[in-house]
Queue: 4 jobs
Job 1
Amino acid sequence: MRAIVIGAGMGGTSAALALRQIGFEVEVYEQVRENKPVGAAISVWSNGVKCLNHLGLEEETKRLGGMVDSMSYIDGLTGEVMCRFSMLPLIEEVGQRPYPIARAELQLMLMEKFGLDEIRFGKRMVAVADGPEAATVEFADGSVASGDVVICADGAKSLGREYVLGRQAQRRYAGYVNYNGLVEIDEAVGPATEWTTYVGEGKRASVMPVAAGRFYFFFDVPEPEGAPYEPGTAKEVLKTAFAHWTGGVHALLEAIGPDAVNRVEILDLDPFDTWVKGRVALLGDAAHNTTPDIGQGGCSAMEDAVALQFAFQEHPGDPRAALLAYQRARVERAGELVLRARRRCDLTHAKDAAATQAWYDELRREDGTNIIRGIVGNIVGGPLT
Ligand code: FAD
C-alpha cells in the first residue's frame, strides 16, 4: 500500500511514521522549502506522549520534554498564590508524564525519525482527487503523485478539507491573541519544575519548563480581530497590557528578548463529521482546528495518526473501509476536544466577566482535585486511552 501524506507538521509526520510502521510505502510532501516551525513550544499531554512512544520515540520525547511536577495559579494583579498542587496524582492516574517540548525540536524529532532527506520540501498541493484505483495530488510545480490513500495533514487552512467537504469552512476568531516564546528559566517568574499561570482581567501569563533550562512562556491578551500590530513590538504591547501586574510577570517581561516573541491570533473551527472522501482523508488541524486552551490540538493530531494505523490494521487491503473506520474512531472525540477548548477559552478570557470571576474564586478554593479531573477528562479517550 502506498500513502501520500500532504504536510510535514506534527500530524503529517506522525501519520507517516504510523503508516510506515505497518508496512506502507509513504511519501511526504511539504510546501515550505525548509523546516521552520512557527511558535515556541507546545505541551504534549500524556495522551500525545503515549502516541509518540507508540511511534518509537519514547527516549527522544523524554529527552526533549520539560519536567512539570506541579502546577499553580497566581493572581496576576496581587501575586497571591490562588492554588498550587502536585501533578503526580495526574501522572499516576493516566500512567504517563506530560512533556512540554520546544516546537522546533518536536518537529525535527518527528522529521528525523521519518528521514529528513525523504521529505519532499517545496511541494505545494494545489489539487487532490479521489479515484477508483488511486487518489491523486497535483502540485504547484505541475507534478503529480498518486497512492492508495492521500492523507491531507495540511493544517488549519487545509485545501484537502475544501475537497472533502465540498465547500470552504469558515474559521472563527476566538477573541484573543497569544504571544509566546522561550526564555531561560528564572525562579522569580516561577519554580523550575512548575507550570505557573498568572491570571486576571481575562488575561494570562504562563510559563512551563522545556528541556535545556528553558521556560516556554505565553501571554493571552483579548484583542479585537485584526487589531493593528507593528511586527517586532510584541514586548512593548505586553509591557503595556501587563504594566500593573505583579513582580513575577515583570520579571518574565524583562527576560524576553526584543525579537523573541511570536504573535498568533487564535481561531478555531466548528467540528464537522466528514473527514473522508473515498481514498482521501483529513488529519490534524485540517480535520479539527481548535484553540490551544486545553493544549490538545497537536496531541489530537497524534491520536489521529495512531487511530489511522489501527484502522488499517482492522481493514488490511481495503483503503476505503479503513478510512471510514478511522473517521468513525475520531470524529466524536476530536470534536469534543474542540468544544471543550472553546468553553475553556471563553471562561479564561472573560467572555462573561461574572463567570470568569467565579472561576478565579474557585481557583482560590482549589486543592488540585477538580483541575486534575478536568485534565484527565481531556487526556483519556484516545486510541491508546
Ligand atoms: P500544522 O502543524 O499546521 O502542519 C501543516 C503542514 O502542512 C505545514 O507544515 C504546512 O506548511 C503544510 N501545508 C499546508 N498546506 C499545504 C499544501 N497545500 N501543500 C503542501 N503542504 C502544505 N497543541 C497541543 O497539543 N498542545 C499545546 O500546548 C498547543 N499549544 C498551541 C499554542 C498555540 C499558540 C497554537 C496556535 C497551537 C497550539 N497547539 C497545541 C496546536 C498545535 O500546534 C496544532 O494542533 C498542530 O500543530 C497541528 O499539526 P498539523 O500537522 O495538523 O498542522
Job 2
Amino acid sequence: MVIQWFPGHMAKATREVKEKLKLVDIVFELVDARCPLSSHNMYLDEVVKDKKKIIIFNKIDLCDRTETAKWKNYFEKKGYTVVYTDAKNSNNLNKVIDKAKEELAEKIARQVAKGIKPRAIRSMVIGVPNVGKSTFINKLIKKNVANTANKPGVTKKQQWLKLNKDIELLDTPGILMPKFDNQEIGKKLSLIGSIKDDITPLDDVSLYLIELLKQSYLENMNNLYKIDVTADGENVFIMEKIADKRFKKIGGDYDYDSTIKLLIQDFRTQKFGLITLDNYNDMINEEVSDEN
Ligand code: GDP
C-alpha cells in the first residue's frame, strides 16, 4: 500500500492559496524543523514566483539542532532567509517581522524615492498541515496586537491583522497539500501529522521510524524500550524486541498492532527526545545520485 493523495482536493487547495498569494508582498512558509526539506513544498517557488519568501523552521524546540542547522545552511545557500521559531512558546516570533521588513526594505526605499507613501507590508502564512500555522498566527497576533476582538458587523471572512504600523498579516493561513514523489517523504509527513493516519500504511511508517532511529538515534530507542539492539538489526526484529518488552503475546504471536501504534505515539509525544527526521547527508547524497 502506498500513500496517495486526492488530486481534486489538492488542486482546489492550491488554487485557493494562489488566489490569496496575489494579495501579499511576502510569504512565510512554515516547515517542521524536524524535517525541513520533507515538509517544505518543493513547488513553492513555482507557486509563489516573484514574491519574497521567508522559511520558518517551526517546532525548533523538538528538533535535533545539529542536524537541523545543516538544513538552515542548505536553504540559505539557495537564497532563502530562514528563521527558527517555537510558536507554541512564542519564541522568536518577532524575528520574522524584522526579517520581513529587511527583505522589503529596498522596495519600500524605491517607493519613498518616487514620492510614494508606502502602504503596510502584506504577509501570509503557508505550509502543509500540522506544522503550526494557526498557532503561529495566534501567538504572533497576541504578541503584537493588544485587542483583536472581532468587531460586530465585520464579516469573518478574511481579515488583515495589523502586526505593527509597517506590516499586516492575513488571518487565515494557506494550506499546502503535501506533495511528494517519494514514499519516504510521505512517511515522514505521516509521522509529523501532516497526512491523516487513515490513509497511511502505519505498519510501514513505524518500520521506517525504526530505520531512522536505528541510523541516527539508536541510543534513544534502546534507552526508551530498554532493549539492546544494534544498527545492523533488521527492522522487524527490532519491532519484535519492542513488542516483547511492552505487550503480551497474542496466540503465541507478537502484538504488532499495539507496537506499531506505540512507536508512532512515542514519536509524536517526543519520547525519543530531540530528533530530526531529515538526515542531511542521506538526503543530499540521494539528490546528487538522482541528478546523475
Ligand atoms: P496547522 O495545522 O499548521 O495550523 O498547525 P497547528 O497550529 O494546529 O499546530 C499543530 C500542533 O503543533 C498543535 O498541537 C500545536 O500546539 C503544535 N505546535 C505548534 N507550534 C509548535 C512549536 O513551535 N513547538 C511545539 N512543540 N509544538 C507546536
Job 3
Amino acid sequence: LTGVPGFPLPTIHTQQAYAPDGDFTARWTRADALQIKAHSNPSVSAGQNSLPSQLIMPGIPADFPTINPDVWVWDTWTLIDKHADQFSYNGWEVIFCLTADKNAGYGFDDRHTHARIGFFYRRAGIRADQRPANGGWIYGGHLIPEGAQEQVFKGTAYTITAEWSGSMRLLDPRDNKVSLFYTDMAFNRDASGQDITPAQAVITQSLGQIHADFNHVWFTGFTTHTPLLRPDGVLYQNGAQNPYYNFRDPFTFEDPNHPGVNYMVFEGNTAGQRGVANCTAEDLGYRPNDPHAETVQQVLDSGAYYQKAAIGLAVAEDSSLSKWKFLTPLISANCVNDQTERPQMYIKNGKYYIFTISHRTTYAAGVDGPDGVYGFVGNGIRSDFQPMNYGSGLVLGNPTDLNQAAGTDYDANPLQNPRAFQSYSHYVMPGGLVESFIDTVENRRGGTLSPTVKLGIRADASAVDLRYGNGGLGGYGDIPANRADINVSAF
Ligand code: FRU
C-alpha cells in the first residue's frame, strides 16, 4: 500500500487467522479510517460526491416506487441456511423486514420504538425486469403474535417494546422449521420520551414454521421467545456502563473450517464505562515515525473516546441454537466509530469477509466517512482483519460530500449531497448483490426497499458493478433466492 501525500499510512494487518475462541481482536484503526478522507476529493463543488465512484452507490431517482402504502419498511433480511445461501420456499421468495404502521400517526423517524418484524413474499424465479417496479412483494403481516416477545421482559420496568433486526435460519432445507434470531427491545420512558432507565436489548431466539400453498405464504409458531444474550459488561458494554450502548442484530452461521459449530456475529460496543479516556496507540494504529501520526493525547483531548464500536462473536453451546456463549470481539473501532451494525460473515474463495453498516454521524472526532457498508477481510472468522479498499474499510457509501457537514436524514444540510442519506442497512447477498432500504432522496422520505446493486469482490478490494441493472441500479427490492428448498413443486 502506498500512502496519500499529507495523510498517515494505514495500519499493517496480516489477515492471519486465530482460534475463534482466542482473545485476539482486530482493530479498525484511526490510521485505517483516515484513508477515507485521504481518498476524498477536497475540491468538488458543494453537494457533489467527493468519494471514489467505484465505492459509491449510484444515485437513487427521487421518483422511486414504494413497496407498500400502509407500512414503513427498513432493515430487511432473507431466509438463509448455515452458509447464508438464500432459499425460496415452495416456489416463493420470502423476506423479513422491520415495519411500522404508516397510519398510526407517527412518522418515519419515530419508527424505532414501534418496530415489528413483518414478512413479504413473491413468486420465485421471475426476472427483475418482468416484475412490478416496486419488486412485486406481497405483505404477509407481522411474524410474531401480538405481544409474545414481551415475555422476555417479565418482571422488569418498561413502557414500550420493539422488535429490532436479526436474521432467519432455515434449520433444514428438507422441512419447514425456521429459527428467528432478533433483538428484543424494551424501553422505559417518561411522557416526554426520555429514558427513565436504559433500554434493554436482548438477543433472542424464537422458533416457527413456514408454510406455503398456491396462493400465499404464512407462518406459525414464534410464541416462545428465548433470551440468548444480554451484554455482560466484561466483553460487551451494557446499559449500566453506557445508557447509549449498542447491542443487537444477530447473524448466525457455520464456519466451514469448524463444521458443526454455530457462531453468531452481532453489533456491540467495547466494554467499560462511557467517557473513560482510554484509547491506546494500537487503536490509533500508526506506523512507527509516521510524520502524519496523531499522539494518543491529541486523540483523547478531542473526545474521540466516546465512540467505541465492536463486532461481537458468540458460539452456540447446543444444537438447537438456544444457548450461546460470548467470545472476544472480532473487531473493535475504539476512537473510530460508535456503531458497526448488522454485521455479517461472508465467506468467498476461502476468504472471510465481515460486512457491516455504519453512519457518518457516529464517527469519532477527527475521522470521517459516508453512511453505508464497510468491509474487512481475513483468513478465518477471527483474523487480523484487513479493512477493504486501500486499507480504509469503505465498501459501498452513499454519494456524499465529505467537505460539507453531514446534516441529517430528516433535516438536510442544503450544501450536502441530497443523496447522502439515500440508503441504509445494506445486506450483502450471494453473488455480491446488495439490498438496503431508502431513507431520504432529495428530501423525499423512503421507508421502502432500494434498488439492488452488485459488488465485485476480489481479495481486499471491491467495486460497484455499473453494468448491472440500469447504470448499476437493479430492481427495487430485487432480493432473489439463490437456492430452492426441496419442496419446489406447486407451480
Ligand atoms: C440499523 C438499525 C439496527 C437496528 C434497527 C432499529 O438500521 O440501527 O441496528 O436493529 O436499525 O430500527
Job 4
Amino acid sequence: MGRKFVVGGNWKMNGTKAQINEILGFLKAGPLNADTEVVIGVPAIYLDYVKSNAPANVEVAAQNAYKAEKGAFTGETSPLMLKDIGVNWVILGHSERRQIFGESDELIAEKVAFALSNGLKVIACIGETLEERDAGKSEEVVFRQTQAIANQIKDWSNVVLAYEPVWAIGTGKTATPQQAQEVHQSLRQWISKNISPEVANAVRIQYGGSVTGANAKELGSQADIDGFLVGGASLKPEFVSIVNARQ
Ligand code: PEP
C-alpha cells in the first residue's frame, strides 16, 4: 500500500531548554529508521529553538494554530508565523484541546482547513472518551469528527489522522492492537465510502494512547496502523525504539 510510517511526538506543555537539549541528544544519537517520518510537537515558545537545533531527519510541529493570518487573537499563533520560522507541521484537535479548551469539531475542522491552505501539514486528532466507548459509540464519534473535517477540505494529501482514544491517553491503558486495528479499519472503510477509496488508501492513520517502547512493535504491525502519536514516551529515550517499531 506504500503508506510511509509516521511517528509523532507530542511534548504537550513540557520541557525546559535543558530537557529539550537532552531530547535532541537522543534523537541525534538515534539511529532513527529512515523509512519512518518523525515529527515532534513542541510548545510554541520553543518552536524556533527546536527547529534550529533538531537533526535534519526530524520535523517539527506546533501543537495548535489559529484559523486566521493575523490580528486581534491574543495568545494565538497563526500558520503564517509557523511557516515564517520554517515549521511545516501542526497538531490540531488533540483531545486536550477539545476537552480542556472546549474546541468543537467545527472549530478544529476550520483550523485544519486554514492550516492546509497555508501550506502546513496537519496531524488531526480524533477519538472517543471512555463513556462513549462504553456506550458502544467509538465509531460514531470518530466518524463524526472526521466528517467535520471532510466538510471543510478536499485535498487529504497533507493530512495524517491520529486515532487517540481519550481513555488511553496518559493513562497507561493502551488499546490492544486488536481494538486499535478494529477502529482504524472501520475508519478507513468509512473514508472509502464517504470521502473516496483513493483517500482511504493513501491517508495515514496513527494510533495514540500510552504507546511505549514495549507495545509499539505489536501495535505497529497492524495493517491499518500507519504510525503513532506519542505523548509521555516522546520525552524519553524509548521514543527512538517507538520510531523504529517497524524495523
Ligand atoms: C498524546 O498526548 O497524544 C498521547 C497519546 O499521550 P500518551 O502517549 O502519554 O498517552
